[in-house]
Amino acid sequence: MSTTDTITIEGFTAWLAAFRDRVTEHRSYLTELDSAIGDADHGANMARGMAAVMEKVGASPATTADELFKTVGMTLVTSVGGASGPLYGTLFLRLGMTAGAVAECDAAALSSALRAGLDGVVARGKAEAGDKTMFDAMAPALDAMDAAIASGASLAEATAAARDAAAAGRDATEPLVARKGRASYLGERSAGHLDPGATSTALLFDALAEVTAS
Amino acid sequence: MSTTDTITIEGFTAWLAAFRDRVTEHRSYLTELDSAIGDADHGANMARGMAAVMEKVGASPATTADELFKTVGMTLVTSVGGASGPLYGTLFLRLGMTAGAVAECDAAALSSALRAGLDGVVARGKAEAGDKTMFDAMAPALDAMDAAIASGASLAEATAAARDAAAAGRDATEPLVARKGRASYLGERSAGHLDPGATSTALLFDALAEVTAS
Amino acid sequence: MKKLINDPDRVLADALRGIEAAHADLRVDHENRIIYRAIPKDHGTVALVSGGGSGHEPLHGGFVGFGMLDAACAGEVFTSPTPDQMQEATKTVDRGAGVLHIVKNYTGDVMNFEMAAELAAMEASVEVRTVVVNDDVAVQDSLYTAGRRGVGLTVLLEKIVGAGAEQGRSLDEVVALAEKVNADGRSMGMALTSCTVPAAGKPTFDLPEDQMEIGIGIHGEPGRHRVQMGTASEIAQQLVEPILGDLDFGSSPTIVMLNGMGGTPLIELYLMYGDVAAILEKHGVTIARSLVGNYITSLDMAGCSVTVLRADDEIVSLWDAPVETSGLRWGR
Amino acid sequence: MKKLINDPDRVLADALRGIEAAHADLRVDHENRIIYRAIPKDHGTVALVSGGGSGHEPLHGGFVGFGMLDAACAGEVFTSPTPDQMQEATKTVDRGAGVLHIVKNYTGDVMNFEMAAELAAMEASVEVRTVVVNDDVAVQDSLYTAGRRGVGLTVLLEKIVGAGAEQGRSLDEVVALAEKVNADGRSMGMALTSCTVPAAGKPTFDLPEDQMEIGIGIHGEPGRHRVQMGTASEIAQQLVEPILGDLDFGSSPTIVMLNGMGGTPLIELYLMYGDVAAILEKHGVTIARSLVGNYITSLDMAGCSVTVLRADDEIVSLWDAPVETSGLRWGR
Ligand SMILES: Nc1ncnc2c1ncn2[C@@H]1O[C@H](COP(=O)(O)OP(=O)(O)O)[C@@H](O)[C@H]1O
Ligand SMILES: Nc1ncnc2c1ncn2[C@@H]1O[C@H](COP(=O)(O)OP(=O)(O)O)[C@@H](O)[C@H]1O
Ligand SMILES: [Mg+2]
Ligand SMILES: [Mg+2]
Ligand SMILES: [Mg+2]
Ligand SMILES: [Mg+2]
């Protein structure tokens, strides 16, 4: 692994900005997905949250990952609400705690920080595989990332693998009957629709792959 | 004038039944007219009122005009409500009072009874020519009826003239700006629509012409 | 048409059944379609009767009870009740001190109440007086027309005059109070959508997505003007300005009602009230009391109306007096 | 989308401004979006905090006041508020006797209130307890799902538990009372139309003229089934039967709410209540108290829900106890 095969604070900030851009651009689409099996606010929630994040991050730039992601997590927790606020908030809070007071992360460090984030999401939301939630995009993404790293992939290659797996995981939510979150109230009627949270999670990994592309 | 050139109690009852049939058949149309410049109930009001009238009249058949039309008027007053209830109610109450305790009326007697009814409508509602109300069909109808009688017309000819004049009067309400009733609240926007009450009045004279046709 | 009904022609009868089931402190005369207080007021006290077409709930049945009406006569949807109903109600509620008829100024209501008063006076020698409410500034007033409609002010008038009657005021005093309230209040309404009269089965009018009706009444009738849809604060302006242009509120305390037409959710009504209050205050109007909610509605119409009443200490204290009805309730 | 708003992203802020202007007995913290009683309750008394997404008005802000809540945290439309809001409200209303969080069972609400309770316990050593309301029989309950939604029963629970707290009951007693009410109440809802979330700009779902959704919640979500439109009495049957099938009401007195979803006029709600009451009585259910109107809404959705609470003399007397909020007010 070369020494440039890391993601720096600037890289993290670019990631967040790219995620903000994606949820803003796809705001209506996310809301449409949430209209079908939820309450029509996921686009607004994510756009509002990431706008607040970038404002905070811009106002007081961080120098270490733990600092940066604590701000991101707390901002999401205090500006989003709903299910996605605590869940994405917890993801970033745990990610930062595990990454620690560092200025950059290599692929392995990033992956284990992300996995800590996923564990936090599970601890909060109790979702399991196949419940039709963001978990179903996030868990496959991290599995693919770990597998890529284990087989010697670069950071760019590992995040590309994560992006593809997240997208596949998102697509795989379509036939599922939801067992967690608001969509579960629809019972069988929740099948046949993509999960909004899995879709925003796929955007998160798409943004990561873009900013770490070599 | 031949002695058969009269309208009897049976004729009056047939007239009322024919009017009931017309307002029932045109219920939606009258309501549609009232939707444009009123509150969308004229069809329901007239249909409800005339159904009640025919029920009452059927249950206790009258032998004289005053009896019959008192029942008609009181039934309309107590079953219709709105503007048309007291107005049509007064029309029939006065008509009966003027016709008196008779079993039949010739054209002249009928016309003067109808005119007493019109006077009652004016006393209640204060409408003048061109206010865009039922007056604008009723007054021309009676003027035409009187003119026909004065020139020696039969009952059938006189009621036919009344029917045509009522229809023309109804049509003439279209361009008018309403000054009375609910349509007056629309100001200039009331122009360009037929008046619902003038339209039901034209049906009343149409029914009369039919049952008195030779 | 999608409505929670059994039959378009049975809406009123069925709704009265529900009102009776829901309110132990009301008595419903189903035959005559009259809603009474279960416990009549004291002898020697002026009684208040109102009524009108149905579809404006809670008006008037929701305002029967201590501190407001003694009886409400319910007509068919948007159709004034008939004289026999009002006469029956009048005879029943009279406690020997006379009866005030509160009539909204519509040709039908006025004529039917007129006939009722004639009958009541003839038949039972009840002293009947009438106040005709005509507060709608959207309608140009003139001797040669039907005049202004009675709209939102009716709610305030029934509350204030009801409180006056409860105090034991004489019929003359009650009439004077009613006339004062009517003279000092103005309203203006708007619609985002038409309502649908059950018996008609479809919306009374069509309104494109980008337009609204300004100057509507409460019977689903189109308004005075159809204009481009605006923001809440632009709409507030269009409702408040004609009211302020019509009556000088000076530095009197006022009572302000922001009323929903039936299909607009409360969150929007509060939002509108925020804008209305801000505009009134900018114009120097002092708001002493306010009321936000659905009080005089037009079936499922979306939209709202503003009513402003110029008050004084007496009116404000009558407003604050205890009231116990299903539609307004406080202080007791 | 036609709404009385200024900007889809400013709806909540603007509505809070209107609520503040309309109610002198409420205090609004605009920064934290919290509605408080203007005059806090006595020291040593358990305080009640609730909250949730906006768009359900009068819930929860309309139930802040004597006899019900001490504070309501308002989230964005249909989006649970955030933990910092609830934590702030909790610290502010605590009168030394602990605070009850009343949470409707939605993943978002539960998680955000959980975080708030953790923060409040850590930071200010306020004793916080939580009741999660889950009364919706439309949702199958299971350990492996999010469980039942909290819907109409929330209104009854806030009233009854609020009365208990006002009596000076301890936190443990208040929690037990809340759990009892939650265990003994059931609800079921239906929609004739979708609502429109302002930020989404269009209806959440489409529903043909001849169909309705049965088993909806209060967030504009589609229901469990889409069925042919029916008469009011058929609909009443479809709402009441799942409730009676889920809980045995025996011969207990019950409190029944017929709630409107926001876009349905009161005349239809009364009509529905007539049918609901008739069906309940046919099944031998004793209705001791009832409530008909818009109490927990879903923006402009047309439709209604039924809530039935199995009560006893104590619950009925807590229901009857004085309450003074903008949404419910009696007896004081
Ligand atoms: N228990 C859970 N665990 C993980 N993810 C969840 C859980 N519940 C809901 N979600 C995710 O949250 C998404 C919905 O987010 P959002 O619409 O913003 O919140 P809300 O459902 O409160 O309106 C769902 O699409 C799903 O992916
Ligand atoms: N003052 C009046 N004099 C004569 N006719 C009137 C008057 N006011 C209204 N009308 C008639 O009544 C008709 C409306 O009747 P209807 O719709 O049944 O009553 P409402 O207007 O109370 O709903 C009008 O079309 C008009 O012809
Ligand atoms: Mg959502
Ligand atoms: Mg009409
Ligand atoms: Mg009418
Ligand atoms: Mg939500």
Automatic annotation (TrEMBL), chains A, B:
UniProt superkingdom: Bacteria
NCBIfam families, alphabetized: dha_L_ycgS
One function term, GO molecular function aspect: glycerone kinase activity
GO biological process, one term: glycerol catabolic process
Organism: Microcella alkalica
Pfam families given in the database record: Dak2
UniProt key word Kinase: yes
Domain DhaL residues, every copy: 10-210
One Gene Ontology term, aspect cellular component: cytosol
Key words, A-Z: Kinase, Transferase
Top EC class of this enzyme: transferase
Protein name: Dihydroxyacetone kinase-like protein
Statement: the UniProt record of this protein carries the keyword Transmembrane helix: no
Positions of transmembrane segments: none
Record EC number: 2.7.1.-
Automatic annotation (TrEMBL), chains C, D:
Gene3D superfamilies in the record: Dihydroxyacetone kinase, domain 1 (3.40.50.10440), Dihydroxyacetone kinase, domain 2 (3.30.1180.20)
DhaK domain ranges (all copies): 7-330
Enzyme Commission code: 2.7.1.121
Pathway assigned to this chain's UniProt record: Polyol metabolism; glycerol degradation
Keywords in alphabetical order: Glycerol metabolism, Kinase, Transferase
GO MF annotation, one: phosphoenolpyruvate-glycerone phosphotransferase activity
Domain of life: Bacteria
Enzyme class, UniProt record, top EC level: transferase
GO cellular component: cytosol
GO BP terms, alphabetized: glycerol catabolic process
Annotated PANTHER family: TRIOKINASE/FMN CYCLASE, TRIOKINASE_FMN CYCLASE
Subunit structure: Homodimer. The dihydroxyacetone kinase complex is composed of a homodimer of DhaM, a homodimer of DhaK and the subunit DhaL.
Record protein name field: phosphoenolpyruvate--glycerone phosphotransferase
Source organism per UniProt: Microcella alkalica
Lineage: Bacteria, Bacillati, Actinomycetota, Actinomycetes, Micrococcales
